[in-house]
Amino acid sequence: MKNLTLAVDERLIDEGRKYAQEHHTSLNALIRDLLERVVREPRSDWSAECVREMEAAHGRSKGKKWQREALYRV
To answer: What DSSP designation does 25 have?
Structure first.
C-alpha cells in the first residue's frame, strides 16, 4: 500500500477524527473507505433512486395540495 499526502483544512480534520472515533475507525480508514466507494462502486441514477424511495414510502397526502413556494421553505 502506498502513502498519500493531502492538504485538508484543520477543522475538517478534527471533525473527521471525531466522526471516525464515534464510528470506531480511524480517519485513515474512513478516507480509504470513502475513496474506494466513490471509485469502485457502481453509480446509480440519483433521481431514479429518489423516485424509488418515494414510492416505497407509501405516503398519503389525504388530498392536500402543495404549493411550490412551501416546498422550498426551511
So the answer is: S
CA distance 46 to 57: 17
Task: Find the angle CA(10)-CA(16)-CA(20) to the nearest 5 degrees.
Answer: 150
Q: What is the pLDDT of residues 29-41, one digit of tens each?
A: 999 999 888 888 7
Nine cell digits for residue 18 = 471525531
- Using one digit for the tens of pLDDT, what is the confidence trace for 5-63? 999 999 999 999 999 999 999 999 999 999 888 888 777 777 777 778 877 877 777 77
Residue 5 CA to its chain's centroid (Å): 24
Domain assignments of the chain as residue spans, ordered by start:
1-55
Contacts 24+ apart (CB under 8 A), 61-69: none
